[in-house]
């Protein structure tokens, strides 16, 4: 819904209703305005000297084109809307660090900027930062409040940024209207909620809620904070990543699908459970939104039944069927569905698994890191597939009530060992793969059970007399 409001003091007098996904974030942030849990950020490092003048121009053109970056949020008559700032309020400039800064100081400065709070009311709700190191390499930070962007927005925005940069360098024509407007997505969402399709999806998810949910509150009312979160990341060996790709091709499934299923099996073995809902992070984008940055992603609970007698390929077939069923009803997003997702935040139920492909097109990056990854609740396994770097980063994030960072680090090591084992033997039953490494197996099965004691060389009466 779009409203024309007269006598507003802001830069635009057009108020647009926010999306369902944005409402969750808005109200969650109001509970703790200083919380940085809703920052999402990526830092990429370029190995060749950029033309800073051309890059600055490209960033400015990007800000001008992408209206959701210039969004401002307001409450009026109990409802939340956003309006778009005028272009003149958003000027980008290259950051020049103090000359006394070492390369390490510069990196720490950029990471700190990624984690710094974003003012949801006054904005801006994004941050672009570019700064050069002594070796000529360059850091580029892009940071957004989750209310204006999700993980799928990073490749959409970055590809366009370097398309603009290349066109400026090559003195080509700069095409406009590359991005689709987020307001158009909201309009399509509003029409969906009035459609017959919505009623079909609503009926589907209500049946799931009634049969599978447990007593819980939506995550809107939870008190999750960044300080309560333990997160550890690890880059897969190149051989393991390639094995993952080759196995997906061999058993005719997608790379994200294979990773999600292996992560689900791992979770069931760690938690010793048989039936869970795997909360799969879904981009929420159809063909009309492929060029639309913004907050659209949400979570789909997909039933998963662990059967140790099945092979990986059998499990993939069963899970893929459930996933396809959920995706057919994937546009639905409401409080009923959140109850399924939120049901039980402990380790033993409902893990969240997210596989994100980050393809930045022609960007000449040589390294990257993700210092702010948005909200995570309960137990989450994230995978960041960086196409430009041919690397895959696995991250486990968990509420600290489930274990500290040392515990999460140990889980991540186990996951890597488990991943190698199941990929090398995809035809074996999934129950045949152990989570214990050789040292742990030796300690638990042998050392801890080695309770033998030397037998004294004496008769029983002599022992009593001693």
How big a fraction of the residues is strand? 15-25%
**Secondary structure: helix percent:** 25-40%
Q: For the terminal residues, how far apart are their CA atoms? A: 92 Å
Q: Regions with pLDDT < 50 over 5+ consecutive residues?
A: 1-11, 212-223, 343-348
Tell me the structural class: alpha+beta
- Which whole number gives the mean pLDDT? 82
What can be said about the biggest beta sheet?
6 strands, mixed
Short description:
The chain is α+β, with helices and mostly antiparallel strands and 466 residues long. It has helices at 20-31, 52-65, 103-115, 153-169, 182-192, 196-212, 238-250, 255-271, 312-328, 335-342, 405-424, 438-447, 460-465; strands at residues 2-4, 14-17, 39-46, 71-76, 79-84, 126-132, 138-145, 229-235, 275-282, 298-305, 352-358, 365-373, 379-386, 391-399.
Detail the topology: elements first, then pairings.
Blueprint: E1 2-4, E2 14-17, H1 20-31, E3 39-46, H2 52-65, E4 71-76, E5 79-84, H3 103-115, E6 126-132, E7 138-145, H4 153-169, H5 182-192, H6 196-212, E8 229-235, H7 238-250, H8 255-271, E9 275-282, E10 298-305, H9 312-328, H10 335-342, E11 352-358, E12 365-373, E13 379-386, E14 391-399, H11 405-424, H12 438-447, H13 460-465
Parallel strand pairs: 9-11, 11-13
Antiparallel strand pairs: 1-2, 2-5, 3-7, 3-12, 4-5, 6-7, 8-14, 9-10, 13-14
Helix pairs in contact: 2-4, 6-10, 7-8, 7-11, 8-9
């Amino acid at each position: 819904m779009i409203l024309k409001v007269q006598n507003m003091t802001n830069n635009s007098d057009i108020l647009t209703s926010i999306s369902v996904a944005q409402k969750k974030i808005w109200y969650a942030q109001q509970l703790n305005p200083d919380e940085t849990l809703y920052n999402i950020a990526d830092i990429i490092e370029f190995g060749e000297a950029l033309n800073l003048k051309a890059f600055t121009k490209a960033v400015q053109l990007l800000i001008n084109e992408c209206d959701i970056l210039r969004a401002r949020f307001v409450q009026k008559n109990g409802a939340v809307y956003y309006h778009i700032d005028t272009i003149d309020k958003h000027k980008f400039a290259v950051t020049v660090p103090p000359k006394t800064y070492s390369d390490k100081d510069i990196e720490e400065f950029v990471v700190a900027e990624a984690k710094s709070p974003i003012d949801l009311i006054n904005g801006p709700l994004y941050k672009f930062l570019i700064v050069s190191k002594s070796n000529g390499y360059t850091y580029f930070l892009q940071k957004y409040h989750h209310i204006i962007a999700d993980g799928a927005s990073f490749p959409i925005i970055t590809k366009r940024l370097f398309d603009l940069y290349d066109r400026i360098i090559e003195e080509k024509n700069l095409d406009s209207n590359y991005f689709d407007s987020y307001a158009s997505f909201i309009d399509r969402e509003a029409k969906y909620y009035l459609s017959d399709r919505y009623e079909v999806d609503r009926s589907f998810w209500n049946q799931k809620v009634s049969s599978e949910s447990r007593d819980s509150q939506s995550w809107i009312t939870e008190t999750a904070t960044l300080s309560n979160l333990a997160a550890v990341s690890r880059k897969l060996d190149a051989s393991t990543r390639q094995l993952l790709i080759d196995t997906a091709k061999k058993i005719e499934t997608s790379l994200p699908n294979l990773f999600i299923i292996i992560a689900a099996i791992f979770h069931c073995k760690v938690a010793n459970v048989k039936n869970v809902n795997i909360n799969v992070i879904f981009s929420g984008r159809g063909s009309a939104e492929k060029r639309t940055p913004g907050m659209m992603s949400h979570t789909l609970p997909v039933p998963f039944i662990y059967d140790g007698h099945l092979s990986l390929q059998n499990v993939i077939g069963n899970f893929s069927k459930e996933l396809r069923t959920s995706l057919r009803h994937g546009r639905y997003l409401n409080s009923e569905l959140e109850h399924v997702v939120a049901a039980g935040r402990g380790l033993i139920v409902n893990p969240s698994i997210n596989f994100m492909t980050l393809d930045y097109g022609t960007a000449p990056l040589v390294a990257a890191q993700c210092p702010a990854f948005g909200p995570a609740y309960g137990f989450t396994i994230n995978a960041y597939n960086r196409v430009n770097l041919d690397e895959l980063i696995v991250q486990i994030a968990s509420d600290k009530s489930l274990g500290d960072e040392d515990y999460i680090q140990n889980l991540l090591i186990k996951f890597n060992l488990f991943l190698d084992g199941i990929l090398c033997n995809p035809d074996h039953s999934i129950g045949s793969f152990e989570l214990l490494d050789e040292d742990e197996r030796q300690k638990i099965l042998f050392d801890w059970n080695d309770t033998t004691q030397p037998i004294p060389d004496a008769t029983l009466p002599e022992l009593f007399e001693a």
